[in-house]
Amino acid sequence: MILISHRGNINGKNIQKENHPSYIDTAIEAGYNVEVDVWCLGGRLFLGHDSGDYIVDINWLENRSSKLWIHCKNYEAVEYFKDRDSWGDDLNYFWHQNDDLTLTSKNIVWAYPGKQPIKHSIAVLPEIHNDDVTHCIGICSDVIENYKDESK
């Protein structure tokens, strides 16, 4: 089971720290993958949920590519990563709003909360709707630490 920290959160929401580069690194160091919110504004990359709060460069993302699930927050971000696809980058990105599900650039189903069970998908915030995650390949949660023992 792939355990994905939602915006760097491990043991509950921390809105002040979500998407901060050091907070994300802490979650990765704890052994988790991390879903990050990425904006592209004027050709520059930023982390942040509702706006681009923390500037990062492509190297920052590439150095963590095996652990990141990049949620593109605007169309410019999608275009930025799509243009880079031809360069052979190994970034896993997606875009969605309220869709039941979307496919990541690595063809993995990312399912909106409350839409489980979907085989071979990532269950997002399953604790909100008490989703059945038995057929999922991963979980993305603000309380991902709670799922650590279940994934063994």
Describe the structure.
The chain is α/β, with parallel strands linked by helices and 152 residues long. It has one domain (2-151): TIM Barrel, CATH 3.20.20.190. It contains three helices and ten strands; from the N terminus they run βαβββαβαβββββ. The chain has helices at 21-29, 58-62, 75-85; strands at residues 2-6, 33-41, 44-47, 54-56, 68-72, 93-94, 101-103, 109-111, 121-124, 138-141. Strands 1, 2, 3, 4, 5, 6, 7, 8, 9 and 10 form a ten-stranded mixed β-sheet that branches. The chain is globular.
CATH level-4 homologous superfamily: Phosphatidylinositol (PI) phosphodiesterase
> What's the number of structural domains?
1
The structure class reads: alpha/beta
Number of strands: 10
The CATH class designation is Alpha Beta
- Strand/helix succession: EHEEEHEHEEEEE
* Major sheet characteristics: 10 strands, mixed
Going by CATH, the architecture would be Alpha-Beta Barrel
Distance between the termini: 8 Å
Low-confidence stretches: none
Q: Might you state the CATH topology name?
A: TIM Barrel
Helix content: 10-25%
Average per-residue pLDDT, rounded, comes to 93
Helix count equals: 3
Tell me the radius of gyration. 14 Å
